[in-house]
Design goal:
7-stranded mixed sheet, binds zinc ion, Metallo-beta-lactamase, Chain A, alpha/beta, 8-stranded mixed sheet, 2 domains
Length: 355
């Protein structure tokens, strides 16, 4: 009896597997349709009223399969903004289930290539997917106009092709590219870059010498505050801006690990690379620096990004962090591409998720 039942069950499984194999294309196409359908739904429909931070790129100029170049989404209620647009930013945003078409603004911290080399693609895809008739604004410190003028020249021909191919109703030439908002920052002061009901975005000067200007941003939405350090050493301005902030997203570099790479470069006669490795620690912050600063500023939560160098093996994470988790008394973590952090309006909660 049991033998018969077992044989019957086995036959059923075998028949099921055969049907699935024969129908594999139909099944695969149904799955693709389901995934595409989910991707194209309005992501804001299911988002609670929060200040959300999406880590679309937690890497640096180093090639790193796990971390894209600098890219941070900030969603205040229903308004989505992008902070820095490193290479692949547009694709990373899409992979997190958002559309560049819904971007209300882009904010640039400084003009190192890793922070702007995905900007052209962000502008092009934003134009292609945007449906509300608003031209995008790119905000940046003095010098942003020069960058934007260059991008406009670079993409002029492609913009014309797109309008010619899809028609002016779909690709209106007057909405191509972006309008530029260039602002000034003075050391010790805050520059209000954007203000609308419930939301304030301020810029402040940071120390990324000899890169000048270089700014960080403080974003306040319905009582919740996030500070983005930009590229900087441990700096008093960041500390002041981050005082009592709910979340500090700070860049970090491990001098110990970079020194190892420098030695390896010397061993391989890569003297130019060795010189660059010798130079970079002096304009970035270490995880320990960030922990000290965040503890003194009484920050609620610390997330590290712009991770230098890549950390392909799990134990490297501990080496990278060093004593930082002992110094900072609150939660501190290394940000990962796809992390999605929500600060619900009018509460003290910090919710971590993945997208
Ligand atoms: Zn950088
Ligand atoms: Zn930089």
């Amino acid at each position: 009896m049991i033998k018969k039942l077992l044989l019957g069950a086995l036959a059923l499984v075998a028949t099921g597997a055969t049907v699935a194999y024969v129908q594999r294309e139909t099944i695969t196409l149904a799955v693709v349709e389901k995934v595409a359908n989910k991707r194209m739904q309005n992501p804001f429909a299911t988002l609670a009223d929060c200040l959300h931070i999406g880590l679309c790129g937690t890497g640096s100029p180093f090639p790193d399969p796990d971390r894209a170049a600098p890219c941070t989404l900030v969603i205040a209620g229903q308004d989505m903004f992008l902070f820095d647009a490193g290479s692949a930013a547009a694709k990373q945003i899409a992979l997190m289930g958002f559309s560049t078409g819904q971007l209300k603004g882009v904010f640039i911290t400084h003009f190192h290539s890793d922070h702007i080399d995905g900007l052209g693609e962000v502008l092009m895809t934003r134009w292609a997917q945007h449906t509300e008739g608003q031209k995008l604004t790119v905000h940046g410190p003095s010098g942003i106009s020069k960058v934007m003028n260059g991008l406009e020249t670079a993409y002029q021909q492609d913009s014309a092709y797109r309008t010619a191919h899809h028609g002016a109703a779909t690709m209106p030439p007057e909405l191509a590219g972006a309008q530029t908002h260039e602002f000034e920052v003075r050391k010790g002061n805050y520059t209000t870059v954007l203000q609308q009901p419930g939301l304030q975005i301020e810029a402040f000067a940071v120390n990324h010498q000899p890169i000048n200007p270089a700014v960080g941003y403080r974003i306040t939405y319905k009582g919740r505050t996030v500070v983005l350090s930009g590229d900087t050493t441990s700096d008093q301005q960041v500390k002041n801006a981050a005082r009592n902030a709910d979340l500090l997203l700070h860049e970090a570099l491990s001098p110990e690990l970079v020194a190892r790479l420098q030695e390896t470069a010397i061993d391989n006669n890569r003297s130019k690379l060795a010189k660059i490795f010798a130079d970079i620690p002096n304009y970035h912050a270490t995880p320990l620096d960030v922990a000290v600063l965040a503890q003194e500023a009484q920050v609620g939560y610390v997330v590290l990004h712009h991770i230098v160098p890549p950390l392909p093996l799990a134990p490297l994470r501990e080496i990278f962090l060093g004593k930082a988790p002992e110094i900072f008394q609150g939660p501190l973590r290394i940000g990962e591409d796809g992390d999605f952090i929500s600060l619900p309006a009018g509460s003290k909660e910090v919710i971590f998720d993945r997208r």
